[in-house]
Amino acid sequence: MTLVEYTRWPHGAKLRLTNGTQKTIRYVAEHDSTPAGSPILCVEKTSNGWTTASVTIQSITALNPITRQTTEAFLLFDPAAPPKPGDRRVSMLTHDLRPGQSVEFWYRLEPGALPKRVGTICCVPQSALMKKLQPWLDRIEQWCRIKPTPAGQVRVWCPNSLYLPSLQPAASGN
Question: Does residue 171 lie within any of the structural domains?
Fold first, then answer.
């Protein structure tokens, strides 16, 4: 994911996600007023350093009773605040990117706000071998007390900190 440009009105940044692999990948985004959606990962720079992004996505398979077709849906999940019974969960927007294909996001920024880093989660198809090895890898991660990473999910971050300076003119002392 790369920074393309900043926009002054509306205030924000244009980002580009490019599939540099040989396989079609699927990216996950939040629904907004744009066709591509909005990146789902965001951390802010504070005086203590960068905040942590603890959200993950959960894949579920649903059956359409009318067409009898199954579809895969992705839900945003924050392990720090698990959902309570009765909580409503909204599915994320997903799009496929073929090899070499790109998509552009627009991310809203408030002038003068803390610098941010944004990203999204991409789902990479797993080979048959990886599907067989995954239960063993999960067990090893659990034994070593390593934070598990869902199979085929890759976090893709924009390496640039996004920041718009305040529009307020600096106070001058006379």
Answer: no
User: Does the residue 100 lie in any domain?
Assistant: yes
What's the predicted TM-score (pTM) here?
Answer: 0.77
Give the pLDDT confidence of 43-98 residue by residue, as tens digits. Answer: 998 888 888 876 778 888 888 788 888 878 888 877 777 778 888 777 888 899 99
163 within domain boundaries: no
| Span 3-12, pLDDT tens digits | 999 988 888 9
Query: Three-state SS across the chain?
Result: CEEEEEECCCCEEEEEEECCCCCCEEEEEECCCCCCCECCEEEEEECCEECCCCCEEEEEEEECCCCCCEEEEEEEECCCCCCCCCCCCCECEEEEECCCCEEEEEEECCCCCCCEEEEEEEECCCCHHHHHHHHHHHHHHHHCCCCCCCCCEEEEECCCCECCCCCCCCCCCC
Residue 123 lies in a domain: yes
Number of structural domains, the chain? 1
Range of 97's domain? Answer: 2-157
